[in-house]
Design brief:
The complex is a heterodimer of chains A (about 300) and B (about 675).
Chain A lengths: L13 H14 L1 H23 L31 H7 L2 H28 L1 H16 L2 H12 L3 H28 L2 H9 L3 H37 L11 H8 L8 H28 L3 H4 L3
Helix pairs in contact in A: 1-11, 2-11, 3-11, 4-7, 4-9, 5-7, 6-7, 7-9, 8-9, 9-10, 9-11, 10-11
Chain B lengths: L6 E11 L5 E12 L4 E5 L6 H7 L9 E9 L2 E2 L5 H7 L4 E4 L3 H4 L6 H12 L7 H11 L5 H5 L8 H14 L4 E5 L7 H18 L2 E6 L2 H7 L2 E6 L2 E7 H6 L4 H8 L38 H5 L5 E2 L5 E2 L8 H8 L12 E10 L6 H5 L9 E9 L3 E5 L6 H8 L7 E6 L2 E2 L9 H6 E4 L3 H4 L6 H13 L3 H14 L16 H14 L4 E5 L7 H18 L2 E5 L3 H7 L2 E6 L2 E7 H4 L6 H9 L47 E4 L3 E4 L8
Parallel strand pairs in B: 3-8, 3-9, 6-7, 7-8, 15-20, 15-21, 18-19, 19-20
Antiparallel strand pairs in B: 1-2, 1-4, 4-5, 9-10, 10-12, 11-12, 13-14, 13-16, 16-17, 21-22, 22-24, 23-24
Classes of the chains: A mainly alpha (about 300), B alpha/beta (about 675).
């Protein structure tokens, strides 16, 4: 639409629309809470190394498994490390990994889905059965097989998560494409004689992207859970780097003595995921998408 | 009116809280009273609040709406004061509702018998053993053939008309004293609609029920109601006996509405109402209709008129109701219709045959018979500047033919030529100039305009594609085109969601005309619009025809609309041509039995014109394998020949052709 910047034509650009969408999201209480949680987590991930009260790896053998005190707000863990500092920093790895893997998943899943939706016919049918078969396997099993085969470095975990979480996206993108392709404005564009690319770019993408944005937010929260689970099982982040999944895993043995080592990271992780989910709901509402109808899988 | 009214609504106002926090009224001071054995029609355009009144009579308001003042009484007690349990007992029991789209209100996974039994269980105290007999009785009452068979069917196995009958049977199950009908026949074919209305009339008379009938269609109201209430912008503007209101309405809006309905008996364009109704909350302190009213005086704009008797049995909300008669005389003059006939075929369809279900390789290998063609043997030559109407019931293949002409659905046989040059069947094979010369306008602008594109984007597409315009030139041209459809430059950056239904369809029409086409294919382009807006669209099409000599192929199920606009009409049944000829001839005394059935079923907004029901309203899914396609429903079928041989074309003067076995003198 670059040549639409003719004199006198105000741009109904995406930026302006994003502004209204954000305003609408923040207008509902749940959307406002969701956005606040997500933004707070992102800010914390960025600045936490400079604001935490204690170094995350400094141990204090005199202060092991203490409850909350004035000095240690959430107490200390089994090595005497400050839990509060570790919780503040524990989302950095997860956010970094999922922050790269989510766009990756959306990109490849979205492209596949749109292409399949457009292609239709036998290819579409066959591919969708492959997708179904893939989705029927338990996700943790799939992740573990890959991570155990190729090792657990970032260079493995990021593409792995991106790959797996792109598969359900194929489905959503394909369904959205089918919906849009069946509508009259696509027929109208075809009847006018627009090229295939033009139709995809102008008619299809703007309508599919909305659904994809909401789907992306959902996938992000799932991916966070998956990454934390991997850490919990010992395949994600290596100690002593603080990570919520890993912290829960390490501290759960001491739960009867001091629950803070589990509770702290748990609250942090769930608040982030709840925040993302609330934001996704508000986003869907602000964009006028019926989430209940779209979010399958 | 001796007995107290069964349903009475007094001074009811309903509203919602708007975005700014202010209360926005949707209904303003509505009064209504219906006695046993009476039927009241509520008419108005979309957004006038007519459905809201009907639902409020059940004590129900849509989500977000609340009652601001007034009361609704049923059987003497306030509906809004009743408890949920009491309301549940009344709704579906004493007070039945028949919604617009019954197919959607029936549960798809339950058999018809089960669904009606549930209504019985809830509202009738009768032993379980008698339920089945009662269900059969109800199905017979709504004139469904073979109740035993229908009972075991699922909703999707029934036609639209049958589903509507089942919904009526369900409403009758509770032995209602009153029925609320919310557009129950909208979306049904004319013949089916006429049958359902006859049924409702009979039922109301037999059971002495009160009926409140909501419809935008004055023809329907004329058929079933004695009393009519006309609503505008949430207010009742006119109430009176049906004959008075439809033949000589004393409110300017009602008069305009009536003038905007195309009549089957007349061949000129209806007159559109200027302007549009105010959105909820927009109406100022004066009369809501004043901005559009030809009679408005200062008093109208300052102080809203009260509802007052006019002395002839009507209640009217207008200061100048005595002068309304003068409105028409001023308008009659603006009716001339011009259609210049030039020679040469703009579009020529030669024996076009279309099939939706393509046979797969597996079926072919297994030796399955080829499927029956959806559309067969369509040969129509359309002259330049001519308007050809295609009419028929749903499933007659009229829209399918348009899709094929547009190149979206390749035919299995036949030729299409544009200005005497063959037109490739697929849109991808057509040259840019051929594409430009044929444009398609769809039924529903909500579907045919991309919701993410501004009006500027929408209009830019054909201009850029066919003319390569850009920058200031593109903008200039877009504005010019918008002005031809009577929209201005300030619409350029609006999204379709910010336009009214009529404005959207104007944009869709503007997009088609931006290509400077020679042939415009119109697929039911007015059927999703209100009548007054429809009239404006027809005027617009006629103007383009006058200015540019555009050729139209106009598809519609509405015979009166087709008559108003077309030069020639083709009647289709099951994808086969039954009759084709000049409008006057087809609508004249000599016609195909199917055309006759259709014409007789049309409802006119006149209580003195009754439809004649000539054929059963059966929906046929596929045409018969041999003989005449209409044989199974034809009231004048000849015993031995109609189901054996395809009927011949009988030619009459003026290019009028009828495909029928009946001897020409009997047609």
């Amino acid at each position: 639409m670059s040549d639409m910047a003719a004199p006198g034509i105000p741009r109904t650009g995406r930026l302006r629309r994003m502004g209204t969408v954000l305003r609408d999201m923040a207008a509902s209480p749940s959307g406002a809470i969701g956005l606040t949680l997500v933004v707070a987590h992102l800010v914390m991930a960025l600045i936490s190394p400079w604001i935490v009260p204690y170094d995350y790896k400094v141990m204090d053998s005199g202060m092991v498994l203490s409850g909350p005190t004035g000095a240690h707000w959430l107490g200390t863990d089994e090595f005497g490390r400050d839990i509060f500092s570790r919780v503040l920093m524990g989302g950095r790895e997860a956010l970094l990994v999922t922050g790269i893997a989510t766009p990756l998943a959306m990109l490849w899943g979205g492209m596949m889905g749109i292409l399949l939706g457009l292609a239709g016919g036998r290819l579409d049918e066959v591919m969708m059965r492959v997708v179904d078969a893939f989705l029927s396997l338990p996700w943790i099993l799939k992740l573990l097989v890959l991570v155990m085969t190729f090792g657990n470095g970032m260079m493995v975990i990021i593409p792995t998560l991106g790959f797996f979480y792109g598969i359900p996206v194929i489905r959503v993108a394909r369904a959205a494409t089918h919906d849009v392709v069946a509508r009259d404005f696509v027929s109208a564009a075809r009847a006018r004689g627009h090229g295939r690319f033009g139709i995809i770019k102008r008619e299809l993408l703007p309508n599919v992207l909305d659904t994809m944005m909401v789907e992306g937010a959902m996938r992000w929260s799932w991916m966070l859970l998956a990454f934390s689970s991997l850490s919990f099982l010992g395949f994600g982040v290596s100690p002593p780097t603080p990570d919520w999944g890993l912290m829960i895993s390490e501290s759960r043995v001491y739960m009867p003595l001091s629950p803070w080592g589990v509770l702290g990271p748990m609250v942090a992780l769930s608040s982030l995921i709840i925040g993302i989910n609330l934001s996704a709901d508000a986003l869907a509402k602000a964009m006028g998408i019926d989430r209940a109808r779209k979010a399958v899988v | 009116m001796g007995a107290p009214p069964l349903i009475s609504v007094r001074d009811l106002s309903v509203g919602f809280t708007g975005r700014t926090g202010a209360t926005v009224p949707v209904l303003r001071g509505v009064d209504m009273a219906v006695c046993r054995g009476q039927s009241l029609g509520i008419v108005g355009e979309s957004g006038s609040g007519k459905s809201t009144v009907a639902l409020a009579a059940m004590g129900y308001l849509k989500r977000g709406l609340r009652r601001l003042s007034g009361e609704v009484c049923f059987d003497g007690a306030d509906m809004f004061a009743r408890t949920r349990l009491e309301l549940e007992a009344i709704r579906g029991g004493q007070l039945g509702l028949i919604p617009q789209n019954s197919g959607q209100s029936l549960t798809p996974t339950l058999r018809i018998g089960r669904q009606i039994t549930e209504a019985l269980r809830l509202h009738c105290k009768m032993p379980e053993a008698e339920h089945e007999a009662r269900v059969l009785d109800l199905l017979a009452q709504v004139r469904l053939p073979d109740p035993e068979v229908i009972m075991r069917r699922f909703p999707h196995e029934l036609s639209g008309g049958q589903q509507q009958r089942v919904a009526i049977a369900m409403a009758l199950a509770g032995e209602p004293d009153a029925l609320l009908l919310d557009e129950p026949t909208t979306g049904l074919d004319v013949t089916t609609q006429a049958h359902i209305l006859e049924l409702l009339r009979d039922l109301a008379a037999e059971r002495n029920m009160a009926m409140v009938y909501v419809s935008h269609d004055l023809g329907v109201i004329a058929r079933v109601c004695e009393e009519v209430m006309v609503m505008y912008a949430g207010e009742v503007v006119l109430q009176g006996p049906v004959r008075q209101v439809l033949q000589d309405p004393v409110h300017p809006y009602a008069r305009g509405l009536l003038a905007s309905i195309p009549r089957l008996g007349e061949r000129h364009l209806p007159v559109a109402l200027e302007g549009r109704p105010p959105a909820p909350g927009e109406a100022g302190q004066g009369c809501a209709f004043a901005p559009r009213c030809g009679l408005a005086i200062d008093q109208c704009r300052e102080l809203a008129p009260p509802m007052a008797p006019d002395g002839a049995g009507n209640l009217v909300r207008c200061y100048r109701h005595q002068d309304v008669g003068g409105l028409d005389a001023a308008r009659q003059g603006s009716l001339p219709r011009r259609c210049d006939k030039r020679s040469g075929a703009a579009l020529d369809l030669g024996a076009v045959a279309i099939c939706y279900t393509a046979q797969g390789w597996l079926e072919r290998m297994l030796g399955h018979a080829a499927p029956v063609l959806t559309v067969e043997g369509i040969s129509i030559a359309i002259r330049q500047g001519e308007t050809v109407g295609l009419v028929g019931e749903s499933g007659s293949g009229k829209s399918t033919i348009l899709k094929t002409v547009a190149g979206l659905l390749p035919p299995v046989a036949g030729k299409i030529s544009l200005c005497d040059k063959p037109l490739p069947v697929r849109v991808e094979q057509r040259a840019p100039d051929q594409l430009r010369r044929v444009q398609l306008v769809f039924q529903n602008p909500d579907e045919s305009l991309n919701p993410r594109h501004s009006v500027a984007d929408i209009l830019a597409q054909p201009l850029r594609l066919y003319y390569g315009l850009k920058g200031a030139e593109l903008y200039q041209r877009s504005v010019e085109i918008l002005e031809t459809v009577r929209l201005g430059a300030h619409y350029m950056d609006r999204l379709p969601g910010q336009l009214s239904g009529g404005e959207k369809q104007r944009v869709a029409i503007a997009r088609a005309f931006a290509a400077e086409p020679e042939v415009v294919l119109c697929d039911e382009i007015t059927s999703a619009l209100d009548v007054s807006v429809q009239a404006a669209m027809l005027e617009l099409l006629n103007e383009f025809k006058r200015l540019k000599g555009t050729t139209y192929v106009f598809v519609s199920h509405d015979l009166a609309v087709v008559r108003a606009l077309s030069d020639r009409v083709a009647v289709l049944y099951q994808g086969r041509l039954c009759e084709i000829g000049p409008v006057e001839a087809v609508y004249g005394p000599r016609s195909h039995p199917y055309t006759e059935v259709l014409l007789n079923a049309v409802l006119e907004p006149d209580p003195d014109v009754a439809p004649k029901l000539m054929a059963a309203d059966v929906v046929e899914l596929s045409p018969p394998a041999m003989g005449c396609p209409f044989q199974r429903r034809c009231p004048r079928k000849l015993a031995d020949i109609c189901d054996q041989k395809t009927p011949p074309w009988r030619e009459f003067e003026g290019g009028h052709g009828i495909r029928c076995h009946l001897p020409p003198e009997d047609l």
